[in-house]
Every structure is written in C-alpha cells, then in structure tokens.
Amino acid sequence: MNVNNDYFFLENLYRLLEQGYGIKETLEICKEITHHPAVDAILERIQNGEDLTEALRDDHLPKDFLEYYDFFSLRFTLSDAIKNSLKICKSLRETKHKLRASLTYPCLLIGFLIMFALFVTFILFPKINELFASFSTKRSFFFDAAFTIMECLPIILIFVIVLGSSVFAYFVYALKHKKYMIIERFL
Question: Is the entire prediction scored with pTM above 0.90?
C-alpha cells in the first residue's frame, strides 16, 4: 500500500472525527474517498464489538504510525492521537527526504574522489614513474616520499569511509532495534 494513501486516509479520519461525525459514518466516508483496505478491517472489528482505538491497530496501516498511535492513544483523544502520530510520521518522512537530498551531492563527490584517487594511484603514477625511468633521472627523497603518501591516500580514504559507514550502520541498527546500551555508548 502506498504511504501517501495511508496518510491521506488517516488525515481524513481524524478530521472527520474532529468535526463530530460518528465512527461508522466517518469510516464509510473515508472508504468512499480513499478506498483504503484498512477501512473494511476496521469496520469489521468495530461490528465485532471493539472500540475504534483498538480497531485502528490494523496491519494495513504503517508500523511507524501504529507505534506512535499506541503511545498517544493512552494520553489523548482518538482524533488527537491520530493527528499527533500522523504529524510525527510526516515530519520523519520529510526529514529523511531532506537528508537523502542533502547527502546525495557529498556522496557523489566522495565517490568521484575515490575513483580519481584510484585512477591517479594505479594508472597515472606508474606512467610518471616510467617517464622518470625513460629519462634516467634520479628522484629526490622528498619526491619519493610525496609519491608514497599520495599512493597511500586512496587506501586510507577507502578505509576511513568503510569504517565510518560501518559505525553509522551499527548506530542505525541500534536505533531501529532499540538497543539502548549501544545508543548510550554512542552518546
């Protein structure tokens, strides 16, 4: 199911509930507007005697929404719980989108830098060494040291990127799986 359709359904649901429509009437209107599969499941659960707060914990809805909804449903009215949960989900989605957009350019630059460094190290430097050998010139110690350092830079750069990516991935894993000891160690 499309996340935008999920959010559209939930937005209509809380707005209609805020306006004072009845539960079944609200769900019927939402069904006509969005054709969301959760509507039928929620209506069926309500007809079986569950209240709307429990019936909304449906598998057709996004998991992140359901986590926030569980928290807010204990403290707020039903429409406010849906509204606050939806607001956080939209904010998180927008932040992820902005983060991806802002990290795309630096990642492309780093990729280009690595490719250029590998090109210089494995193609250009050997050609320069052949050029020096063909002229039978002796290179100075400073020149040899500079070439050696420049040849090691791509390896160091790749190592740092792999290490940084691994640490970041481990941190994201800890956040997703709520490993509080690991998160505390990072902080």
Answer: no
